């Protein structure tokens, strides 16, 4: 256990292993894990269900203002609640995956989400992962990590995840989706995906999940040595 709580920001593109690794790090440190991607997926699910204009910044922002998103720990991992309904599995559908980058690009959505995420992190030891945590959400985090892997490796990981959920998606299609999402996330006008100047880069292509988590745990302990 670390002697005082710190904020750990983990950024990177889709399917880089951020969430799985962040959960392990948080558990090892006794910290709170905050999955920002799940929060964006939740509002995307609601937008799709209500049929709003996904291209409208105003409609997306207005929808979020009347939406409750809550993250709760459980023995089986983090649970995601949308307006008090458990949507932990529903937000991982391909339907949501294909639409989440468009929703996350809206300025009004990101402004409100950043407020919520900063409130969740305030005064606590947290591990938060996403695409703009080190640059935008927690710019003063004691430890910032930017992790990535090759598109081919990330697609393979997503393919294996989908198989476990009984989702059949061709590997080539996943590669195309991930490459397109990288482009969209990196080129959006509001808080684009990029490495913070003071973030440490970790290439997870040839690392196991545990090896990557161990690297971050070592870095965290160095911050307090």
Word description of this protein:
This protein has nine helices and eight strands. By secondary structure, the protein is α/β, with parallel strands linked by helices. The protein has one domain: P-loop containing nucleotide triphosphate hydrolases (Rossmann fold, 3-Layer(aba) Sandwich), CATH 3.40.50.300. β3 and β4 form a beta hairpin. α1 crosses α9 and α7 crosses α8.
- Structural class by secondary-structure content: alpha/beta
Which regions have little confidence, pLDDT < 50, spanning 5+ residues? none
Helix content bin: 40-55%
CATH-assigned homologous superfamily: P-loop containing nucleotide triphosphate hydrolases
Total strands: the figure is 8
CATH level 1 class label: Alpha Beta
Number of helices: 9
Rg, Å, rounded? 17 Å
Largest sheet: 5 strands, parallel
The total number of structural domains is 1
Order of helices and strands: EHEHHEEEHHEHEHHEH
Q: Strand fraction band?
A: 15-25%
How is the largest sheet built, in terms of strand order?
2-6-1-7-8
Mean pLDDT: 93
Find the CATH topology.
Answer: Rossmann fold
**What is the rounded distance between the termini?**
13 Å
List the defining traits of the structure above:
225 residues; alpha/beta; 5-stranded parallel sheet; 9 helices; globular
Write the layout of secondary structure elements.
Elements: E1 7-11, H1 18-29, E2 32-35, H2 36-50, H3 57-65, E3 69-72, E4 79-82, E5 85-86, H4 94-104, H5 107-121, E6 126-130, H6 133-137, E7 143-148, H7 151-164, H8 171-187, E8 200-203, H9 209-222
């Amino acid at each position: 256990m670390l002697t005082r709580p710190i904020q750990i920001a983990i950024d990177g593109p889709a399917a880089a292993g951020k969430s799985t690794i962040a959960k392990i790090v948080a558990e090892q440190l006794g910290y709170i894990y905050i999955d920002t991607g799940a929060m964006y997926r939740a509002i995307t699910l609601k937008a799709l269900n209500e049929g709003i204009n996904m291209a409208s910044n105003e409609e997306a922002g207005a929808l979020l203002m009347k939406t409750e998103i809550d993250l709760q720990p459980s023995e089986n991992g983090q649970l995601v609640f949308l307006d008090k309904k458990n949507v932990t599995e529903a937000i991982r559908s391909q339907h949501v995956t294909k639409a989440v980058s468009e929703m996350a690009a809206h300025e009004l959505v990101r402004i409100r989400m950043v407020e919520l995420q900063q409130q969740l992190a305030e005064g606590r030891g947290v591990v938060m992962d996403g695409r703009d945590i080190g640059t935008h959400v927690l710019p003063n985090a004691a430890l910032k990590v930017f992790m990535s892997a090759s598109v081919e490796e990330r697609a393979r990981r997503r393919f294996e995840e989908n198989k476990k959920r009984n989702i059949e998606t061709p590997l080539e299609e996943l590669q195309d989706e991930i490459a397109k999402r990288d482009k969209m996330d990196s080129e959006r006008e509001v808080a684009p995906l990029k490495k913070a100047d003071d973030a440490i880069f970790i290439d997870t292509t040839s690392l196991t999940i545990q090896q990557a988590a161990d690297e971050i745990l070592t870095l965290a302990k160095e911050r307090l040595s």
